[in-house]
Amino acid sequence: MAEKIAGDWLFAPETAAVMKALKAAEGTARFVGGCVRDALLERKVNDVDIAIDVDPNTVIRVLTEADIRVIPTGFAHGTLTAVKGRRSFEITSLREDTHTDGRRAQVAFTKDWKKDASRRDFTMNALYAEGDGTVVDILGTGLADLNAKRVRFIGSANARIQEDYLRILRLFRFHAWYGTGDMEPDALVACAGLAGGIAKLSRERVGAEMLRLLAAPHPEVAVDMMAQTGVLS
Q1: What angle do CA 8, 138, 60 make, to 5 degrees?
Q2: Banded pLDDT at 102 (limits 50, 70, 90)
Q3: For the whole model, what pTM was predicted?
């Protein structure tokens, strides 16, 4: 039997209204990322992200026709914020990165769900769910890693980090919140070798990541690994 997520947010009237409006785009819309991950872990879902295999202009049109407010928060990257009642939803068209500079990416829109999943950072963040909550593990490893509390990069750790050096800090933050036991050796080696890339990040982003890491119930292992790999300094 296919795994399913649940939660008040999933079947809230606002969620249903947004998903119904997106059907008019004649594509497929799925929940993605943190809301799927946290729902599977039965944790509180704060942000609802939706991926859709149509272009952002079409998304704007169908939402506007359904009297749903749209904010073009990241239009160049295919990301829009839909506001219905007191709830907001971040909707992003499927995309692949065509060029990265260690922080920002140039993107191309696609209809290929595997390409969209492959551009993400960790396997547990590449989980999708249909409107009824049925989980879709496109890469085939996200559910297993989530259940094992294993924070693992998608594909090459080196490649994922060089696309965005913030992922070094995200690795340790995610381990603090979702991991257990030893961290992945290849990820630690990559972080140690590429730690210099953190200099590309703004102090605000570094500070925000560290505060979120330290807010975890038991951040000690992650912080210790940061020290051992030279990332903490």
Answers
A1: 60
A2: low
A3: 0.93
